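Here is this case:
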Amino acid sequence: MAISVTASAVPCLTSDRMARIDAAAASSSSSCSKLSSSTSLRFPSHLRHVRIGTRDSRSRILPPVEAKKQTFSSFEDLLATSEKPVLVDFYATWCGPCQFMAPILNEVSITLNDKIQVVKIDTEKYPSIADKYNIQALPTFIIFKDGEPFDRFEGALTADQLVERIETTLKVRK
């Protein structure tokens, strides 16, 4: 996985205060390093796999999540045509807990494949959907059944907690 960074994406700090800090740290106060458009950053190999669990519990190493992208004419179409309940993860790319949940959602999707469909909605790309469901905290999870909101909860959970929440919700409210 490579991330390209252009010079315009990395601002150069040139205020007087920063110039004094630069002068103390280096001999030139007005120099600011630039990144070229060909510069790329790579995640270290030890960060490419995520360890899930605590030292006391069964620890698992999961590979990076490979999302299966599907296109629907509308969110309502997705909900209406789903044969299973749908767990929707409302997230943002800048949200730390949301990033923590990515491999957990992958694990839950595999574990509960026959019971629920997992969908991720980026709230910055689809703000109208986030507004419709009054998403004010991230991550927010909504379980939809028959096209209607069935259960809602917020915050990061472990895989075991999420599986338990989903199974309890689907059993209790049938």
Summary: Helices lie at 16-25, 75-81, 96-111, 127-132, 159-172. The chain has five helices and eight strands.
